Amino acid sequence: MSGSLRPGDFVRLEKIADELGVSATPVREGLHALRGEGFLTFEPRRGFVVAPLSPSDIQDLYLVQANIAGELAARAAIAATPATVAGLRELQAELDQATCDGRAEDVLELNWQIHREINRLAGSPKLSFLLSVAVRYVPQPFFATIEGWVSAAVHDHAHVFDAIERNDPAAARSAMEKHILHAGDVIRAMSWLTITLRWISLVPSPTIISGASRK
């Protein structure tokens, strides 16, 4: 999420095409795809509009993430070796330091790397893909600025790692589900969220529209 547009803003097809240096056709197709995914709405004779994200939307998205991520963690626990767990703990040490230093971008990157590694261990690419679909609806860079979110998002990892290290799929699933829902609870607890969400962009950056999204 780039944060350059707010819910209710119009998305100008021609402007995006000019910025990307492409014709209007692929941009139009991309905008229609985003409309189908719920990022945009369409107003006849006016164009595409950024859709809002409500607190109930966030609750639903975190619930979906928790269910899928929990299953991936359970499968990772079955496949884990001492070496893979050691790698996760090394990433966590870097994440802890980045958190202490207040390096928000590094916190997001390292947190992403940890979850990517767990998903890789699961050996379930279709589930990982479905999880990525749910995750992209939630503007992580914005939520990382909310007090308590970083703590909720990164400090539950030890319980997940311990379960994976024991090769205990049930415990890994439970720990991961609690971890994801904990982060979601912090967001939902913000009484001002309904107002703030009006200012959050739900439109991915132009690189995503043009097909160059992060893998």
Task: Spell out the blueprint of helices and strands.
Blueprint: E1 10-11, H1 13-20, H2 24-36, E2 40-43, E3 47-50, H3 55-79, H4 82-101, H5 104-122, H6 125-135, H7 140-143, H8 149-154, H9 157-165, H10 169-188, H11 193-196, H12 206-209
Helix pairs in contact: 1-2, 3-5, 3-6, 3-9, 3-10, 4-5, 4-9, 9-10
General description of the model:
The protein folds into two domains: 10-53 and 200-209, Winged helix-like DNA-binding domain superfamily/Winged helix DNA-binding domain (Arc Repressor Mutant, subunit A), CATH 1.10.10; 55-195, GntR ligand-binding domain-like (Four Helix Bundle (Hemerythrin (Met), subunit A), Up-down Bundle). Strands 1-3-2 form a three-stranded antiparallel sheet. Helices cover 67% and strands 5% of the residues. The longest helix has 25 residues, at 55-79. It is mostly helical. The two termini are 15 Å apart. A hairpin with a 3-residue loop joins β2 (40-43) and β3. The radius of gyration is 19 Å and the shape is elongated. α3 (55-79) crosses α5 (104-122) and α4 (82-101) runs antiparallel to α5 (104-122). The protein has helices at residues 13-20, 24-36, 55-79, 82-101, 104-122, 125-135, 140-143, 149-154, 157-165, 169-188, 193-196, 206-209, and strands at residues 10-11, 40-43, 47-50.
